[in-house]
Amino acid sequence: MTPFVRPVKRGSSTIKQFLSPRLWLTFFGLFVCGGSLSAQSIVHRMYLYDMGIIMTAAVGPTVSFTDIKTHVVFPATKPQNEVGFTIQGTLIWDISSYFAVGGQLAYATISGARSNQRFDAQLFEGNMSVNFNPIRLFWRYRSDQKWDPYIIVGVGLSNYNSTLKFIDTGQVRAKRGYGNGGGPFGLVVEGVAIIGAGVKFKLNDHWFLRFESANRWMNDDKLDTFESIKSSPYDFYNLTTIGISYKFFKQRHYPMIRQQK
Question: Where is pLDDT greater, at 230 or 4?
Fold first, then answer.
């Protein structure tokens, strides 16, 4: 007697497998993840910003805004030269394309002259600042952009010696620091508030040129050793520099997207 064999309904089984929720969830997951991976690879190549540490060396002129000064804004060069000199070293943590924080050490000479009097100061400044790029509020970062402006806001300490002399005789009228100040090595120490702006130009992924100009407001009116009751109670000075920067960051390797023939 031949045993009865129930025929297999292959068409019905295939349809059930096709309609299986597990199969559709798997397909949906692969579709979403695949699209996400493709999008990420595109973002990496053009829009992803590399965080890193930036070291900068810079030099430039200085301008004083004190009571002993020939003109209100611009420095004089004749008969007395009021243009000073600064050299700076800066270390910046580049957190994002919007924001960076850093520290700076600077040496500067500050000068001014008026009515047969001239002051000269030598100062050492240390500061902490934040750099904010307002352009990123309106335009997205792209790795092929060359120019990058930013605003500088910070605080610091200025340590200085200052001397006021009569121009015709060279006689010292007054001086501050030189062992009598409250800072290191007898320098006068004062707090400064910093506001300025800068722009950097990208040479390649690591090297940049940088231009900055920032004012330093001091907490008193005695940088030139002369205190006036008729003018502002605060002296300030400006440091303007051009420098070269190098950025250290972890090199990333992203998948290549090849065009299909």
Answer: 230
